[in-house]
Amino acid sequence: MYYVYILQSKVNGSFYIGCTSDLKRRFFEHNSGKSVYTSRLKPFDLIFYEAYISKHDAQRREIYLKSSKGKTTMRTMLKEYLILNGSID
Question: Model confidence over 39-80: pLDDT tens digits?
Fold first, then answer.
């Protein structure tokens, strides 16, 4: 399986969207500082993930969620979570 995931930084509330075949390992890497891009924003909460059989489908979804329209979709999908956690009004 391949996973598209969304992390939220506990430091500043920013989001990170990624794709992996080992979600547990990747989440550990982000929170332990082994990922250069996210090391300054750790620790993270895993707030969402989707599973795909095809690597290509997962990568396509990751690219979409990182787009302007995809970010709007993400905020709509996670609206209740974001409201409850004070990330949006």
Answer: 899 999 999 999 999 999 999 999 999 999 999 999 999 988
Q: Going edge to edge, which strands form the sheet with 2-9? A: 15-20, 2-9, 44-52
Residue whose tokens read 């992996």? 20
Query: Are the C-beta atoms of residues 2 and 19 closer than 8 Å to each other?
Result: yes
Q: What are phi and psi of 19, to 5 degrees?
A: -140, 140
Give the separation between CA 84 and CA 89, rounded to whole angstroms.
9
What's the whole-number mean pLDDT along residues 30-39? 89
Q: How far is CA 10 from CA 15, 55, 73, in A?
A: 10, 29, 22
pLDDT at 88: 60
